[in-house]
Design brief:
Number of helices: 14
CATH topology of the largest domain: TIM Barrel
Mean pLDDT: 95
Bound molecules: ligand NGO
Radius of gyration: 23 Å
CATH architecture of the largest domain: Alpha-Beta Barrel
CATH superfamily of the largest domain: Glycosidases
CATH class of the largest domain: Alpha Beta
Structural class: alpha/beta
Distance between the termini: 28 Å
Largest sheet: 8 strands, parallel, barrel
Number of domains: 2
Low-confidence stretches: 1-19
Strand order of the largest sheet: 8-9-12-13-14-15-16-17
Helix content: 25-40%
Number of strands: 17
Length: about 500
Amino acid sequence: MLLLAVLTGGAGARATPQGVQVIPKPVTVTAGRGWFSASSAVVSVASATPETRRIAADVAGLLGGRVGPGGNVMLALGGPARLGDEGYDLAVTSRAITLAARKPTGLFHGVQTLRQLLPATGARRIPALTIRDYPRFAWRGAMLDVARHFFPVRDVKRFIDLIALYKLNRLHLHLSDDQGWRIAIRSWPRLATHGGSTEVGGGRGGYYTQRQYASIVAYARSLYVEVVPEIDMPGHVHAALSSYPKLACDGKPSPLYTGIDVGFSSLCVDKQLTYAFVDDVVEELAALTPGPWFHIGGDEAAATKPRDYLRFIGRIQRIVEQHGKHVIGWEEIGRARLGPDTLVQHWNLDPAKTALSRRAAEQGARVIMSPAAKTYLDMKYDSSTTLGLRWAGYTSVRDAYVWDPVRQVPGVGARDVIGVEAPLWSETTRSLADVEYLAFPRLIGIAEVGWSPARGRSWAEYRLRLAVQGPRLAALGVNFYRSPEVPWR
Ligand code: NGO
């Protein structure tokens, strides 16, 4: 019997031998003979830059070895074009490890693989093998709603730590909604000081100073995660209207809102002040955000007349572009005429709304797949889950894994889909522990949907690999849901 096997990709795949249980599943894994002993590691960099040296130090820390010349763990920049910006080649023998990538991002992803090749506990050794790996999709995101409940900087950084382990590369921050405005804007200070002063259920809320937001962005970048800020418009703006009543059409003061209804607020599309306001907000936030995107929301604008909505989205797109960013919007913006390089985010269950993603794709927009029934991390797992909502149905760990992003919306196929994103809306999550419980382990499955080839993926095999993540998540202190669907170790 052949024990040496190509472990992934295709019909001939065999059961994964112990020690090679990486998530997301690499493109190809070929098992070798023997083990590399981590304690003997001396890490060297062929292409030394401050960035690759930092990665080398991480590898040395991970293996419990040191950085030095002429080592047996070699990091190098280079490799075939197929690896792209994020892929890597990893070769482990009993004597040496080589990790090569065209960009530091790829080295970083290779290090996450190495991390999972080490056992969670016990002997620090890595099985001999070769891996070639690169992502299926460029966009692999998680979204955190910091508006319904506020999460302090340290929570957000911890969340970034966890998503980076699974090769996710975008953190979308939903920074404003009816219940709270979470980012300081110097030209409109009451947005944060008043609009950020409460949250769902009436708690204290909070907001990020510009310095804090910048520190989140920089921290994410150090883990190769790009932050995507969202200011939701023209609906979901009650906190802003309560902070500055002159932005409302009737100009009347209103108290802050701490419930969870949606679709009742709108910016005043006819007021010139509205566009001055949006321009100021986009200008300040764009300046703090090195990534190329600005998310304008655009969902559930039930309190804005359809004609006004189209006018508004048109003007807002121009403002965002003037500040040098590409527009992202929820799929409702597909109703409007879209500029080039726009991304739309599919989420609705209703086919009439889903068709707007197709309309956007027909205009040349690319689509981020966040189908609510698969990727909404705020849905309950099953009827016994106490946290979460259930408007899109229950979403089991299996449901979040068994789907293909290019088969979600008729007419939106491989050419149109840029990737996947899992939103965590925070109506019911009051702490990071709550967030972790809903996100893990479903987010790990979404990470694999975004990275790994569709061919060769199966729930029966995945659930065994996921089981091995149990001790790893436990060691990290993650409050994950021990779903009965998974034979946890
Ligand atoms: C919807 C709605 C959000 C809710 C979320 C709850 C979108 C794009 N808009 O998704 O305001 O928080 O559902 O699941």
